[in-house]
Design a protein that fits this description.
Blueprint: E1 10-15, E2 17-18, E3 26-29, E4 45-49, E5 55-58, E6 64-69
Antiparallel strand pairs: 1-6, 2-3, 3-4, 4-5
The protein binds zinc ion (ZN).
């Protein structure tokens, strides 16, 4: 029974999307009321830079969570 499962230690990272315009701010998913996702396939979420207010669209909401194996760099 115990052969059926293996475990690998993971580390959890917050994954931030650096603004492609100012290269310093972070793109944050716009969660304000009335903010609509573009109903494309996949849906696109509106993001606003916390520095320069640049608007970008992405199918992933940032910041997001990224897992990496603890035994790799
Ligand atoms: Zn920016």
């Amino acid at each position: 029974m115990s052969d059926q499962f293996t475990y690998r230690e993971l580390r959890v990272f917050q994954m931030n999307w650096t603004c492609p315009k100012c290269q310093t701010g972070s793109m944050l998913a716009d969660s304000s009321p009335g903010s609509m996702a573009l109903l494309s396939d996949p849906p696109q979420f509106r993001h606003i830079c916390d520095r320069c207010k640049n608007v970008e669209w992405n199918s992933v909401k940032y910041p997001t969570v990224s897992y990496r194996a603890a035994d790799t760099n």
